[in-house]
Amino acid sequence: MSKVSMNASRENTAPEKSFFEQQRGLLVRDIGVSLENVLQNLNNLNRNLEGIIAVGNEFSSVEALWSHFENVMAKDSTSAEAETNGGQDEETHQPQSESKSEGG
Length: 104
Fold this sequence. Notes:
This protein has helices at residues 2-13, 19-58, 60-103. With 104 residues, it is mainly alpha-helical. The mean pLDDT is 79. Helix content is 92%, strand content 0%.
């Protein structure tokens, strides 16, 4: 008889949920599903970003080679310009010094 009385008391003490509680339960369930979707999408994004980084890292040696090439070419062009400008500067300085020596 104790089992029967316990079941009866459970049914009597568990009142129906109010409309607010029902709606809150539905919203909490929807929020949980939405958060699971967000988590799955963030995991997909993380995997994609890791893949992109891996591909980028594969090109690091190529980038280093091109960077070295660029630096070498920049040094060559700078030294060539210095030689060209150096010769012109000397020519322009000589007449000025000659004109000063002639005038003085």
